[in-house]
Amino acid sequence: MRHRRLLLQVGVAGVLFGLLALLVNNLAVNLIRTGLGLGFGWLGRPAGFALAETALPYAPSDSYLWALTIGWLNSLKVIVAGLVLATILGVAAGAARSSGNRLLRSLAGGYVALIRQVPLLLQLLFWYFVAFLGLPAAPIGGLIRLSNQGIQLLGLNLSVEFCAVLVGLTVFTGASIAEIVRGGINAVSRGQWEAFRSLGLGEGLGLRRIVLPQALPAILPALTSQYLNLAKNSTLAIAVGYADLYAVSDTTITQTGRAIEGFLLLLLSFLLLNLLISGGMAAFNSAVLGRLNRSR
């Protein structure tokens, strides 16, 4: 039996190696046919195109490498902000779904049911064309100013494209996080609820101090998947004209014809980002489990 398993593993490894060799061979043949070869020297050439949004100074005379770096920073900006806001929204909606208040439960349930049935791309287009491009120029207090050119918030100028992508990713991912949080809360025994109520703690305080910390081990693994999904879904920003890494890579590939190198850089960039997210969440999960074990 042991030898059979070993032979099966060797066979699977052989098939995978054969497929990899076939892909590499096809890549080499196609490179020879095009006469381009495989190289990254073009990264130092002037990009020649403008970017609507830049986190750092950029001009069309700058290199393709710098343009891709700006796109990476733009992606990072919307992903990090989206992760924070989606977590806040998802935890609030998940807690509301477990609330004893019927109105809160109904509102949170309606939000989750509606958002999870509509594709993210349609939601991004709605936020861009309907919500933000239709904004009238109107100040709100002395710190916020709304218009169809963007939002000025506490001295920050946020473009319409960035706001549409950020709100779309936040609302869409927040609905999935809400279900994860609700499931984690329901996994905590009802005795814990009764315990904090017997101590005179309010529902909100008991949820934050007693229930949610115990629900974290059940929440975090699935939460990591949603964080990774948000990072990957950010590539849909190209639909509303946001200059993220995918949009800049697409323009670069079109101009240079370097599709293989462009997609390799795109793949490695998102692989690095996802590894950072997975590693950070794994470390956080280990810390939470260690703290819970010490408290027992």
Tell me the name of the CATH homologous superfamily: MetI-like
Average predicted confidence as pLDDT: 87
Strand order of the largest sheet: 1-2-3-4
Strand content: under 5%
Question: Count of DSSP helices?
Answer: 9
Straight-line N-to-C gap: 43 Å
What is the count of distinct domains?
A: 1
Element layout with pairings:
Elements: H1 2-34, H2 64-97, H3 102-117, H4 120-132, E1 138-140, E2 144-147, E3 150-153, E4 156-158, H5 160-187, H6 190-198, H7 203-233, H8 245-256, H9 259-295
Antiparallel strand pairs: 1-2, 2-3, 3-4
Helix pairs in contact: 2-3, 2-5, 2-7, 2-8, 3-5, 4-5, 5-7, 6-7, 7-9, 8-9
Report what the structure shows.
This protein has helices at residues 2-34, 64-97, 102-117, 120-132, 160-187, 190-198, 203-233, 245-256, 259-295, and strands spanning 138-140, 144-147, 150-153, 156-158. It has a single domain (65-295), classed as MetI-like fold (Orthogonal Bundle), CATH 1.10.3720.10. A hairpin with a 3-residue loop joins strand 1 and strand 2. It is flat and about 75 Å long. It has a four-stranded antiparallel sheet. The chain starts with a helix and ends with a helix. By secondary structure, the protein is mainly alpha-helical. The model has no long low-confidence stretch (mean pLDDT 87).
